[in-house]
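Give me the fold.
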Amino acid sequence: MTIEAVAVQSWINKGANTIPEWIKPKMVNKREPNGTFLIHSRAGTDKVQARVLVGYIVIERKGVLFTRPPAEARGLLEELDEKDAKAYALLPKSSAGSQAEADVAPREDDTDDITHRIRHLQASIEGGRFGNAQNGPVTGQKPQKSALLRGDSYSAITAAGNPAGKAASSTQKPQKSAVRALPVSSASSTPKKWPTAKGMPPSIENRNPSELNLDDSYQRSTENSASQALIKKIAHGWDWRMCLPLVVSKRDDGSLWVIDGQHRLAAALMRGDIPFLPCCVGVYGTVADEAAMFVAMNRSRKPMNRLDDFHAAIASGDAEAIEIRDLVEAAGFTVSRRTGSQSWLPGEVAFTASIARVLRKHGPKPCAYALQTIAEAFPDEVLWAGASMFTALTKIMIQPPEDFDPDRLFSALLKGDQRYWASYIEKVKGAEERALRMKDALLMAYEDEGVQQ
């Protein structure tokens, strides 16, 4: 089989040297002040963007650009040639194979002097360890003059088979049957095929804090006491040795968005005297890709609360999360980013899990009714009893009492504010139990309202 040579051309980015014309059509943006720039490339069959760092080589092969450290260029080309031509699988066996094998002695051949001495020594050790465990090593024959080996191999063998300070016995001629076959690692003959690495290598860059942005669609809120305390602690005890690179996404417009490291960024901005932050800058494609990376990184390090999960799910395009958000916003609310009730604000809904349960089982209609009723009855109030009241209202709508009058129930709700209704479930444990207690309280108020009318 004949493998045709593939024409390639290459160029090394020195930071300020002229960029060849064959590269320019594939550039994503202009060369930046630090000498780097992005190009359109491929990773397997995927179209990606790759950053050409200073000192990296750019290779054009079959109309596709690749960038690597110069030391990896040859390996890249060999890999591409192998994939295109399947050279390793299809090449016929060389007739020179038998000659090559003849040039290397078989493992069991101990006719050369060095191998003879090694096997001799191993046999002596095995004899001392197993065959002569009770009677002691055989010592009746004159040792060969050349029995000593130099270097670490000899030290390792004698240390394994003899007490400290005693030489190994070398008086018996080894028999081939006494030598145990050593296992041959399959890794030495069959290289492991790893899955293709995802994405492109990032660049490590020092960036001014003012250049870095945060996307609230998936980032956690830092407007809570724990986060604020952490930010102040980092700012007060700033230590460059502990400032690991922030994980940053570079979008198509060149803007930089922090995926991981928002507390370090906030601390640097709070101080005002941090000129730059080390950043691991990569290309993630879309905001949904950034959100997925945010979730993956934070799950492996620190548990995310349910509202972190919810907002990240919206950013990554989750259909159910988007439907819940739309129901909440249609009622005039927003989804909170805070799970602690003491940090809730008026007009915020934090009970997304309760909405999800009803939505999955009964659809959007009872959800929309309950949310709209709460919004109209308790405008500008913190929803202290929001989750229990929402579930109770949906239960009433799904199985209403005889001759149910929604307006009468609404009037009953107006008899107290959110704290008043929360007092009914203050000592009740369990989400379902609280919802049932709230349902009973609402129906009692509903009946009282009917008597008064």
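The chain has four domains: 8-90, 113-175, 203-304, 318-452.
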